[in-house]
Write a structure and sequence with these properties.
heterodimer; A: Rossmann fold; four-stranded antiparallel beta sheet; 27% strand; B: mainly beta; eleven-stranded mixed beta sheet; binds adenosine-5'-triphosphate; binds magnesium ion
């Protein structure tokens, strides 16, 4: 269970202090598929990074499975079972795909196990396993490898920041299968996905709409989804669906 | 391998991956003396008469053979100049493994200056691997000043892998190459310095023949208070193509001066250089930390990958 208590984040922007996350309090239960959506610049990625410890909240508390993790760093949170797939994955000169998957698994990972993770994200394993994670990979390939690094870890809470961005239609269906499988594999596991895609919103248990640093609305999919589709707001929220 | 002590065995392993007596031709040198030598029907090794060093002659047409000529110094205070000449015939395909390991536990400096000259025949392919390594905690310095001179005849190919990752206090490595028509040179250098170490790495490549090409890529890491100067120069005097790349990471108080240079003496010379120096990208560290590594572990992984 993840509890956010009065979480705020403000940053210095050219001398003036701007509030990017404004006093958010929310509880995300175990064993849920939660989708965060909302307009560009609303603060979704920032909130996700606050949960993973990448951005330090300026106020409030974060409790994960009863432990106050507010002062814990990225590594400590990762070891407690928080996984994070970046909206914009980073490239590494020299590190290969198998190197990264081995680091993610945190143990000796056999080549065939590593290949399984790659197949899950729709990459032909033998072509990619020894590839360097450098500029030669396409954006979509990089994004899939990023997802595979979270699959390779046994996380309790998996956060995916716009995992569908830049991937094609076929992998989109695949992606939904991945989420379903992840949930079956570990009981109590919660998946938190940031997305603008109606098809992902559709498989959510719960939807959170974040706008201007606030939670605009939240609740069960069946209640929230009709409210945000078909309204003017939805055009903004779901602009990437076209 | 009976004549070797444990330190020497370890050094041979580090610099030439030797876990026993190598296959093919070899000349193992320890503390200024030849330790063991083997020649084959196609590869002859003779000691030089006037200076210390060896002449290696590889018959034309020799394929899939290897020559190991590693050197180790395990006594403090040895200083030596060694001249090794390789005469590679035409149409060969061989692997040459050189390298020098110094263990200095004493207070006197140990120094090995190896001067290697290669004369590569027409259409021959040579893969050359050279590793430099230092160990020991004495106050005496471990110094290596290798000079490599490569003369490449028409259609020949030379692939050089130059690695110095640990323990060499001071090094000035000079590599000079001269290429005739359709000859191809590929260099992959990996360099890491730490502590107070200083490393100078100088490449001067002359592309003299039409169709010749060179690709010189240096990746280096300077940590602690170490200093590196990377001086990569290609001269193109024909219809040739040349590329140099210096890619460096600095950490702590490390300093690097990269001086890539190109000289085109023919309108048909196509020469490119790239150079980049910077610290490890914060995003890379963060990504690995979200996978459960500490910052120090993440740094280690990034550098290992970078220098692989
Ligand atoms: N360190 C910072 N300093 C100043 N402004 C910041 C900082 N971090 C984020 N912002 C701003 O905060 C806002 C929220 O950014 P965030 O990346 O969280 O949005 P998002 O909801 O993920 O948007 P998108 O849908 O485009 O990915 C943006 O306007 C961004 O420019
Ligand atoms: Mg975002």
């Amino acid at each position: 269970m993840l509890e956010l208590k009065n979480v705020s984040f403000s940053a210095d922007d050219n001398g003036s202090n701007i509030e990017i996350i404004r006093n958010i309090s929310h509880t995300i239960s175990d064993n849920k598929f939660v989708v965060i959506t909302g307009p560009n610049g609303g603060g979704k990625s920032t909130l996700a990074k606050i949960i993973a410890g990448i951005v330090k909240n300026t106020d409030g508390q974060i409790i994960f499975d009863g432990v106050d993790i507010t002062e814990k760093n990225i590594t400590e949170r990762a070891r407690l079972g928080i996984g994070f797939a970046f909206q914009q994955p980073v490239r590494f000169k020299g590190l290969t795909v198998i190197d990264l998957l081995r680091i993610a698994a945190g143990k000796t990972l056999s080549v065939s196990d590593a290949c399984n993770y790659l197949s899950e994200v729709g990459l032909c394993a033998k072509d990619y396993i020894d590839r360097e994670i450098n500029a030669s990979l396409s954006g979509g390939e990089l994004k899939r490898i990023e997802i595979a690094t979270v699959l390779a870890r046994d996380v309790k809470l998996a956060i995916f920041d716009e995992p569908e961005a830049g991937i094609d239609l076929w992998s989109f269906n695949n992606l939904i299968r991945i989420f379903e499988k992840m949930r079956q594999e570990r009981s109590g596991r919660t998946i938190l996905v940031i997305s603008h895609q109606e098809r992902i919103l559709n498989i959510a248990d719960e939807i959170i709409v974040i706008s201007d640093g606030n939670i605009l609305k939240y609740g069960e999919k069946d209640i929230i989804l009709p409210e945000i589709t078909g309204t003017e707001n939805a055009i903004n929220i779901c602009h990437k669906m076209a | 391998m009976d004549q070797m002590d444990a330190v020497q065995k370890r050094l041979f392993q580090e610099v030439a991956d030797l876990h026993g007596i190598p296959e093919g031709a070899y000349n193992l040198r320890a503390n200024g003396k030849a330790l063991m030598r083997n020649t084959t029907a196609n590869i002859d090794i003779q000691s030089k008469k006037d200076v210390s060093g060896i002449d290696i002659r590889i018959k034309s047409g020799t394929k899939n053979e290897s020559i190991h000529i590693p050197v180790v110094l395990s006594q403090s205070g040895i200083k030596e100049n060694v001249y090794n000449d390789f005469f590679v015939g035409d149409d060969c395909d061989v692997l040459i493994v050189a390298g020098c390991g110094i263990d200095n536990c004493g207070s006197q400096d140990s120094e090995h200056d190896g001067i290697h000259r290669f004369f590569i025949g027409k259409n021959s392919k040579v893969r050359y691997v050279e590793k430099h390594y230092g160990s020991g905690d004495g106050s005496g310095k471990r110094i290596l000043n290798p000079v490599t001179e490569v003369h490449m005849d028409e259609g020949s190919t030379m692939e050089m892998e130059m690695v110095q990752i640990k323990g060499v206090d001071s090094t000035k490595r000079t590599t000079i190459a001269e290429l005739k028509a359709d000859a191809k040179l590929l260099v992959r250098e990996r360099l890491m310095t730490h502590g107070q170490q200083q490393a100078y790495s100088i490449y001067k490549v002359d592309l003299n023949g039409d169709g010749s090409s060179a690709d010189v890529v240096s990746r280096s890491v300077a940590r602690d208070n170490s200093y590196q100067k990377l001086d990569l120069c290609i001269n193109g005097s024909a219809a040739c193509s040349g590329h140099t790349e210096c890619d460096s990471i600095i950490m702590d108080n490390g300093r690097i001066l990269a001086v890539p240079s190109l000289e085109a003496n023919s309108v048909d010379a196509a020469l490119v250089h790239e150079a980049a120096i910077g610290k490890i990208a914060g995003e890379q560290l963060i990504k690995l930390m979200t996978l459960g590594l500490t910052e120090a572990e993440a740094e280690e992984q990034i550098i290992n990958g970078f220098l692989k």
